[in-house]
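User: Write out your own:

AI:
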Amino acid sequence: MADALPEELDVVILGTGLQEAIIAAACSRIGQRVLHVDRRNYYGGNWASFSFSGLLSWIEECRGQTSGNAEVNWKDKILEGEDAIQLDQVDKSIENLETFCYARTVTEDDVEIGALENKQTNVDSNAAIGNAALSNQDEKNQMCTVTSIDEAESPQENLKDQDSPLSTKEEISSEKVQTEDKLCSGNVPPSTTTEISLAIKDIADNITSTGLEAGNIDQATDISAQEVKKEAKKITYSQIVKDGRKFNIDMTSKFLYSRGSLVDLLIKSNVSRYAEFKNITRILTFQGGKVEQVPCSRADVFASKQLTMVEKRMLMKFLTFCLDFEQHPDEYIDFKDGGFSDYLKTKKLTANLQHFILHSIAMVSETAPTTEGLKATQHFLQSLGRYGNTPFLFPLYGVGEIPQCFCRMSAVFGGTYCLRHSVQCLVVDRETARCKAVIDSNGHRISCEHFIVNHNYLPEKHTKNLKYRYISRGVLITDSSVLKSNSEQISILTVPAVEKDQPSVRIIELCPSSNTCPQGTYLVHLTCLSNGTAKEDLEPVVSTLFTQDSETEETDCHECEVEEKPRVLWALYFNVRDTSAVDRSTYEGLPSNVFVCCGPDAALGFDQSVKQAEDIFHQLCPGEEFCPAAPNPEDIVYDGDGASPENAGFGTRPESEAAEVKENTSPESDPTKDGHNEVVKSLDNNEIDRESEMSNPDTQTLKCDDATEMPKNEE
């Protein structure tokens, strides 16, 4: 495939991050010849989503700092009157990567391959992550053989197996079960033998005797059964590895605002056909040492038991003002240059309401300007009630699906894609100072009019004067939710800064119904601006909300437990470079037709990325429409004999997508009123031509898993 790449193109794009993918789709849509390459073997770059084994391979790649392509001799391709700009082939955007395993590593039934790590023991940055193959349990002096990870499976597998639950039950027999673990890290002694059956029997006997003394034998029996059941449901590391394909772990954790620029672009361009979304069901807050749910809509506010009646009326009055605060400048003009938190104090709001608005509605820092806080609150309120009770949506199978959707659209309209392929250097004409060609990793020279590159590929001589910000990221696999519920919930929680100079931490908790983790587990993403390493920035929050003790350190003091915290089974921390604030003019010596895309920023939404992609597109193709809707298949005129191709990318949707809900256009959908209103309509394949619906801009919708449909903008 790489040997058959075209020699002349309009646009060459290096990197498959979100901005690059959007630009590729927009250029292909208007007929530009696009070549889109990536040195990695997966789509998305730092926007990618990984299975668990794919994540382990990504960790190994980051620690190894190896380029995926061998150097080739390109100097003989440079002609007289031309200069070359050599690009970097190693990604340096990830730093301070640390992993921790708190779950038991091996059980008698686990025979899967997995990387074994000691609890709170960092693998050396130069050490490879291994897979441990467990031999027959009956053999004496059982040992774990450490082998290197095979070739990484594609982390972008769109595996949609939701029916097989995570196997978490252990066989409990009357005989003693012995398990010996040998950790993959150097000179660490094996863990002591675990006697599961005897331990459970002792717990049951102790509780039973206590119940007999109280004269309540039945109650003691029930408690004993609960303890045995709890012991049986403990999840091991090997079970996480066994169900690794059911994980879709995002490198960038974000939500879509239902009235944000990305949702508008998905609907306008018809890219929404390639993805499904799920409503975020609750917004949480951390106050007074406990996690609580935040009321959003008018109905939620007045049904809340957390607020007094006076507070409810004060909150509704302030939110109503924020909806059109621009029309009342006299209300905030004197505080325009001050902080939003200080402005809230002048509105005579209680401390409880100030906390809700600042951290759970506006979701801005305490030092944010007043106008920024008001705009954030307004954006939140405008997005309420459109598709659910919160303003947010999440793509099923993770954020990494979004770049893939735009890459798919580009491919449908003629874009050429090649992974595990890169660009070695740019060929610059000395007279015009423009990039006229690129030389790829195979030594082929490809002429192009424009070149788009991700910031991480630029050599240091062009970025030496830049000062980067960093984002601290944490990924936890836990065994339960931070706030227990009768149903699975996707939640967002902002934890205020513990100390004055510390940043607030945004937590996104994903449940199995989001198709990002198997049954019995939750996936928790932590994000904040960096002050130090990710572990240092996030550890205080993790230790407050979660239990990080391994099973060998757990104590049998069940009587004194007030409320059990979720237990961390596995954790990953890393810092990622934030280049979103870097201006194009700060790059030195770049040709005028070379455009740089930044990586993910720390914001919750996608607005910055969409704006940058649109700005670059208009510089490439001035006067052209940005990502116009795909044409109706009936209106397409094919060249040649008139026969249409077998698959032009406009296939019908599966029957499983029949149940949908249209956007709430009722007057009651006002965000200051009840945001629960939804108009449900079941679509039958016999009643609606699905192919026409997918391509008609007037009926185009964006699919939601929980029966929510996103129609095109009313205007």
